[in-house]
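Batch job 17 of 40 flagged for manual review because the log was empty.
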Amino acid sequence: MSKISIFGLGYVGCVSIGCLASNGHQVTGVDLNQTKVDFINMGKSTIVEQGIDRLISEQHGRKNISATTQAIQAVIDTDVSFICVGTPSSNNGHLNLQSIYNVADEIGKGIREKDGFHVVVIRSTVIPGTNAKVTGIVEASSGKKNHAGFAVVSNPEFLREGSAVNDYYHPPYTLIGSDDNQAIAIMKDVYEGIDAPIIITEIEIAELLKYVNNAFHALKIAFANEIGNICCKLGINGHKLMDIFCADKKLNISPCYLKPGFSYGGSCLPKDLKAIKTIAHDFYLECPVIENIEKSNELQKRIVYEKIL
């Protein structure tokens, strides 16, 4: 059993508190918002999410859950600190990571006051390089060195609203970005019993993967909608067509073609792509995803050419 502090009692933090506690850990929630702290201390969830009310209530009753506004004391009393605060984006897509940095500073102050090794876990969605910045902040505020008094781990969440509790227990994998063996061993203990393989990878990969996943999910939705619109114009059942499309696990729904490298070529792909673009054009349909595939392919040719030169 680990003693864990969760910084941020919003969506990810609340789900994490309930699920970690139900797995046998002693969990303390930390938030500046007194109302959220009071909710947890009354055994109530801070969010609306299927299954989380029951978990919070049960684990509060078993005294596995508490909450506080006192960040430094929470770090002193625990061995692992999860950062689950929000990272809102601006209109141009840049993330505001100030809340992450503020929490890192508070965690560092707590580490300064305690003995033993402490693991800092970045659970929030962040850009590559954040782990290194957080490590520097914790070093400065704790007066201790990375890999000696503490380590910072990148551990992105893959929770969907409406099924977050089930997603927590049954993720596709648990991703741990770290180069510290002691921290990795502690994190494996934290996630013992989760129905998923644990993948250990480089920190930067762990930081970027959440964005790659969601970009691909958005791409799948947009592509399916464009195909559906074409089918509608042709009087074809788009759902049945896509069911058959998804039945191909060798090429369509598979790792095939999903390796970065050179552009596509040959005779079939360029010809058939041009044909489906023409069908959409004939029906005055805008299909920006399909229409820009060739443009992306030509760009990749130039990128590879410049690397060779």
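Reviewer: the log was empty due to a logging misconfiguration, but the result itself is present. The mean pLDDT is 96. Unflagging and moving on to job 18.
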